[in-house]
Structures are given as structure tokens and as C-alpha cells.
Amino acid sequence: MKHYIITYENNLPFANETSQILKDKWDIDCEIIVGHTIGGIYHRTNVIMHNWIDFILPKAMESGEDVIIFEDDIRLIKSINVPICDVYWFGFRRGRLENKKPYITGTQGMFFKKEVLSDCYDNFNTRKRKCQIDYGMSQFCCGVAKKYNIQQPKSSYCYEQEHTSLISLDDWSKFTKPPK
Asked: What do you get for the CA distance between the two ends of the chain, in Å?
């Protein structure tokens, strides 16, 4: 299984720190992938989806393996035990796919079977308007729920380390502490 961390050039030191913590505390070796930053056609609501299309998903598909994709700000609070499934959305802020409004906020950590990756790429790439990755991933998962076994634990396996974010305008104090 391959592990990837998505980041951008100005946040590379933070991604390196995250990678080192994952290695030291959890014995997880990650490849850091540097994507686009905000500017020009890449604004805060679409830059991560563009990074998935242009960098993460092609690299993951090329690997020919199942993958785990982390955002550069995560801190794990427990070992990742992936159940038998095709997609496991284990790192998030809030929300559930089975809710009346089936949207999850946060793509901090996700597992994908290799067979799912090309469908995800095609879904994201064929969108006329690129959207916020959380919303896009929620839509994708709901759209393929009959085709793939998609699971989410009751609580997130990670939280976000406080940092300056170009993307999130949220009050970070809500997300920077390990869930209880």
C-alpha cells in the first residue's frame, strides 16, 4: 500500500514535519506530493480538487496499489485499521454520508482500493466546475455507493494540527484538538 501527503510549495516544511511524525509514531512512510497553490485559476475552493486531478490521483493510479491519502496537516490519534471495503474515509472534521444531507467536511485521511481511483479521477476531471474537495468527494462517494463499499468510522482517526491555512476560513480551534 502506498501513502501520500498532498501539500503546496509554501507549506512543504509543514508536510515534511507531518511525514516525519507519521514515520516516527506510526511507521508510515509517505511520499509528499507538491501541488498547486492559490492564485490565478486556483482559488481556495477549487485548488485541492485540481491537486487531486493533476497530481494525487495520477500518481496513485500509476502506483498500481491501494493508497492512503493524507492532507499535510493531519495528526493521527490511533492506528488505521482499514476494514474490508473499497473506500474508507477515516480522517474528517464532521458529517456522515448516511445523514439526510450526506456531506463530510474534511478529507484529512482516505483509503482507496486501486480499482476506485480511475472512477474518482474521471468523476473529478469531467466536472465543468471544480469544487471544494470535501463536497466533491462526498458527491462522488454517494454516487458510487451501489458500486463500491464505502465506509466511515464513527469518529475521525485524526485531527488537524493548527497552522496557517490558505484554504480554510474556519475557526481552527474546533479542529486542532484530538477528538474525545
From this structure: 29
